[in-house]
Structure formats: C-alpha cells, structure tokens
Automatic annotation (TrEMBL):
Pfam family, any one: FAA_hydrolase
Protein name: Fumarylacetoacetate hydrolase family protein
MF terms in GO: hydrolase activity; metal ion binding
Keyword Transcription: no
Species for this entry: Sulfobacillus harzensis
InterPro entries: Fumarylacetoacetase-like_C, Fumarylacetoacetase_C_sf
Coiled-coil intervals, chain numbering: none
Superkingdom of this protein's organism: Bacteria
Length: 306
C-alpha cells in the first residue's frame, strides 16, 4: 500500500496512476493542524492492513497527476535523525579536503541520535527558503522510516513489527559550529514524500537503492546496504532513547556526495520501491540579517565540526 495525503489534506491510497480517496473512513479527520488523526490512522492501518486495502478498493478515485500531494506525515511527535551513518560520508566530511578540513569526524557509534522538530517538514512540490546567504547549506539524501505502533526498548530482531513503512526524506543542513538540531531544524529542512510505502511492499530493508539529483545532475547514489547502523538497528536504538509513537520518523543518515544547494535549485530524490520526491529552493534568501545584533554570531561561517 502507498498511503498519501493530497489536496486539502484528504487521505488517499495510491495505486498505479490513481489515488483512491478513503477520507470518509478516517475517524476524526479534519484538514487542520495538528493532524493527529493521521497518527491514529497509521496505527490502525498497521494493525489492520487488509481492512484498509478493501476500503481503498471501493473508494472514489482521481488521476494522480490531477491532485496536489502533501507531506504524508505532516506532524509526527518527533523526527529522530542519525548523524554520520555511512563510512564514505564520514570520509568526505573530515580529512584534508573535507567540509571540516582536518577534523576528527566520528560516526553514529560515537554521536548517537538527535531530534529534529516536526515543523521542519514540507511535502512534495513545496519550496524551502535557505536561512543564511553567508552560510553553506547542504543537501543530505536519506530514507525516512515511519513507525507504526508505540514501542519502547524494541530489539533489533523485533524491529520489523514496529516499522509501518518508508518515505523519501531530505535532511537539509547549514554548515557551521552550532549543534545539529539548530543547523538542521529550520522550517522546510525535512522534505518528505510523496507518500508512505508500507513495509510489506519493501522486499529487503537492507538493500533499498536511492538516487538524488540537483538540477538533473546526480549528487548522491547509494543503498541501505552501506549503512553503519541498519534500519532495524536504528529503530532499536531510537526506541531505547525515547518512546516511539505511530507516525514518528527515523531518518537513515546520508551517504557520500553531499553538496551545496542554492536559491532556484530543483531537488529530486528517487527511492526504490517508494517513489520520487521533488522540491525546489526558493529564489530568495532568508532574512536572518534583520534579526538584530544578538543574532550576529550565528551569521559567521565557523567551521567547527558537530
């Protein structure tokens, strides 16, 4: 199943080139923040998938190209992110020619996990505004793991039972010396979509291929096979740190090939068995320079690795 939100936050099941509108069967649905009904729906589909397949089959449908797709989880309780979860990404960040030249860049095994705000989420076709004209902002192509049930201290061996599905995810990042949640937490810095592909449609979580382009040029291409901590291990680690709830998203970490994005760029992420996410970068920079003298330290391009 591919579960999507579209138009005025209606709920759809995507099949080939059509989206089947199941909104009328969603308890408590309304097209307004905080969209908590979506989290309950994910849990119900996770527990009773056959019921929702049947609902979709008898629902009215629309051509997929005629609807506006939205972020498939607009307001999860949290986004859990994995820093430096690919060895080659570790190498490109440190060393003599890395982003943080000469720095001792560690991996997820040393850094652990961090949390991004839900307000950083945007959906397909939307635009992100870069906050600092004097700072480098990079793309990081990743896979989002969507949780389907409430879990705490789940084992790696039992992680499959907690995973609802996968979505495309970008973890945009301002380079500099602040902690990751600041540099990665701006509005629009977690694009996701175009929908959630449920776990039963993913043949092998340990070998999902993905490809990312900027203005048509390939920047990143890899597979979950090269992760330091696998998807299942990430779920286990995250559930040890914090209780995971339906709709929570775990970002996989990014492979090598990260690079700068600039106003006007078009970003495209293709994830095998999931779909294609397209977003744009707004043509104008943000207005951080209007924030006053207290904000000036954040405008520097300090190259302290975090």
């Amino acid at each position: 199943m591919k579960l999507a939100l579209f138009d005025n936050w209606r709920v759809g099941v995507v099949d080939d080139d059509r989206v089947f509108d199941v909104t009328e069967s969603v308890p408590g649905w309304k097209p307004a923040w905080p969209y908590a009904w979506m989290l309950s729906l994910i849990e119900d589909i996770h527990n009773r998938p056959d019921r929702w397949v049947a609902i979709g089959q008898r629902s009215p449908s629309h051509p997929l190209q005629e609807v506006r797709l939205r972020a498939p989880v607009p307001m999860p309780s949290k986004i859990v992110a994995a820093p430096v979860n690919y060895r080659r990404h570790q190498q490109e960040m440190g060393g003599k020619t890395g982003v943080y030249q000469g720095a001792n860049i560690k991996t997820i095994q040393d850094y652990g996990l961090f949390i991004k705000p839900s307000s950083s989420i945007i959906g397909p076709g939307e635009a992100v505004t870069l906050p600092f004209s004097g700072r480098r902002t990079d793309h990081e192509a990743e896979i989002g793991v969507v949780i389907g049930k409430t879990v705490k201290n789940v084992s790696e061996e039992a992680a499959d039972d907690a995973i609802f599905g996968l979505t495309c995810l970008l973890d945009l990042t301002v380079r500099g010396g602040e902690d990751r949640p600041f540099r990665k937490g701006f509005d629009g810095f977690t694009p996701i979509g175009p929908w959630i592909a449920t776990s039963d449609t993913i043949p092998d979580l340990d070998d999902v291929h993905f490809r990312f382009t900027v203005n048509g040029d390939v920047r990143q291409e890899s597979s979950t096979a090269h992760m330091i901590y696998s998807i299942r291990r990430l779920v286990a680690l995250a559930s040890y740190q914090t209780t995971l709830y339906p709709g929570d998203i775990i970002a996989s970490g990014t492979p090598e090939g990260v690079g700068e994005i600039r106003p006007g760029d078009h970003l495209q992420l293709d994830v095998e068995h999931v779909g294609q996410l397209n977003i744009s970068v707004a043509s104008e920079w943000g207005h951080a320079d209007y924030m006053g003298p207290w904000f000036n330290p954040f405008l520097s391009s300090r190259a302290i690795p975090q």
